[in-house]
Amino acid sequence: MMKRLGAEGFMEELCKGFRLLMEDEQGVITCDSLKRNSVLLLGLDQEMGDDEIVSMMVEGDLDGDGAINQMEFCILMFRLSPALVDGSKQVLCSNRGGHCCSASPANYYT
Fold it and tell me: Are 67 and 56 in contact (CB under 8 A)?
C-alpha cells in the first residue's frame, strides 16, 4: 500500500482513518468512539468487546491521558502492521540512496 500511495499519500490515509475513528469534539480516539465506529468503519462482523477496546486503548495511549491522539494512532498502526514498518523502511532507504538500510539503527539517521 505504501509503494502505491507513496509516503505522503500513505500518511494521509492514516490520518483519514484516525479522523473516522475519533471523537469530533475532542479530536482524539476514545473508548466510546472506538466502540461506536469499529463496526461501521473497520468492517467487523460484531461490536468489539469492552476488553478488546480497553486493550487497544492501553496499547495505543502512549502518554497515558486515556485517549489516542493522531500521532499515537500512527505509531500504533505501524507497530501492529509489520508490513508497514518494512514498507516505510524501504521508502526511507530509497529516499536516502540506500545508506540507511544496514542492520545498525544508528545508520537510519545518517
Answer: no
69/22 Cα distance (integer angstroms): 8
Q: Which amino acid is at 43?
A: G
Q: What is the pLDDT of residues 56-101, one digit of tens each?
A: 899 999 999 999 999 999 888 888 776 655 554 554 455 445 444 4
Coil, helix or strand for 27? coil
Tell how far CA 14 is from the center of its chain.
6
Reference 73, options 24, 20, 37; nearest CA is 20
How many CB atoms neighbour CB 89 within 10 A? 14
Other CB atoms within a 10 A radius of the CB of residue 23 amount to 15
Of 91, 90, 88, 92, nearest to 79 (Cα)? 88
Q: What is the pTM of this model?
A: 0.67
